[in-house]
Amino acid sequence: MTSTSRDRDLRSQLETLTTEAFRPELADVDRLPTLEIARLMNAEDATVAGAVAVQVPAIAAAIDAIAERMARGGRLVYAGAGTAGRLGVLDASECPPTFNTDPARVVGLIAGGPDAMVTSVEGAEDSPELAESDLAALGLTPDDTVVGVSASGRTPYAVGAVAYARGRGALTVGLSCNRDSALAAAAEHGIEVVVGPEFLTGSTRLKAGTAQKLVLNMLSTITMIRLGKTYGNLMVDVRASNEKLRARSRRIVAQVTGAGDEDVERALAATDGEVKHAILVLLAGVDGPTAARLLDEADGHLRAALAAAGS
How far apart are CA 158 and CA 4, in angstroms? Predict the structure, then answer.
């Protein structure tokens, strides 16, 4: 196929995508006052949560499957290009400080590697082979999950990642913003959040990017809830790596236990700053090593460890 015919074929594909559609009613948007443009954009953004809501059953089904595998030691891997890839890397990078996960447990892959986080890497998103190479380096297992992320749902890197992962027995999820996408078809779990044409034609860092961020928030956060990384809506597995997080750790222990500042400090000191362990020390009246054993036996679930300590 010649470069001209490839270009013609790509243009034909893009013309069928909702995310690439032209909005004639916005053709003169550059003539409007700034306040009116801001109001129009805000109104557009307000529709995104509703589009995500339509896909909540599919999102929940994917989360249950992901959590089941991660409970067996599997990893969650995001793979995408451009904005989609950056959002995956962002979500993955926020899991260690929020949920005290090993950085290797939630991984973000972006077409073109780390340099692509801040600059465009020519041709990277068009290479399914690059996705295969990136995933091969991880040594995928059937307990792993690969989430391909692509607004168009046709990005070769994302589709290639899902196809490769499925061929190795890993769980696969395809997150896109167009119906009947190649990405959803390639994955076991297809999540298609149709946000409609963008405010700026084809600029999928806007509504599509917002939708993808909302879904990735749900995938990681609710999976971690299922894995016992929270107690109610408190981040009891938070990693206290700075003063703000150390203060949050003390506050969480106090909220759960009702203990005073001195008792909270003693419990955290006895458990090397581990919030769940400190809560067990205070509520169950055990020492630090016993708290660690109880949590290990409960697979990290604080409620189960508290129940075992009381039995």
Answer: 24
Q: Taking Cα atoms as reference points, which of 278, 303, 276 lies closest to residue 288? A: 278
274 annotated active-site: no
Contact 253, 268 (CB under 8 A): yes
Q: Give percent helix, percent strand, percent coil of the chain, each to the nearest 5.
A: 60, 10, 35
Contacts of 229 (CB under 8 A, 6+ apart): 99, 100, 101, 235, 236, 237, 300
Give the active site residue among 20, 44, 125, 198.
Answer: 125
CA nearest 222: which of 91, 108, 85, 29? 91
Q: Given 15, 36, 44, 94, which residue is catalytic?
A: 94
Residues 6+ away with beta carbon under 8 Å from 249: 238, 240, 268, 273, 275, 278
**HSE of 28 in the Cβ direction (CA atoms, 13 Å)?**
4
Which phi and psi angles does 239 have, rounded to 5°? Answer: -95, 115
Full strand arrangement of the beta sheet holding 76-80 = 106-110, 76-80, 145-149, 171-176, 189-192
DSSP structural state of residue 171:
E
Confidence label for 240 from pLDDT (cuts 50, 70 and 90)? confident
Task: Answer yes or no: 94 catalytic.
Answer: yes
pLDDT score at 8: 57
**pTM of the full structure:** 0.91
How many whole angstroms separate alpha carbon 75 and alpha carbon 66? 9
The pLDDT confidence band at residue 186, using thresholds 50, 70 and 90, is: very high
Segment 189-225, tens digit of pLDDT: 999 999 999 999 999 999 999 999 999 999 999 999 9
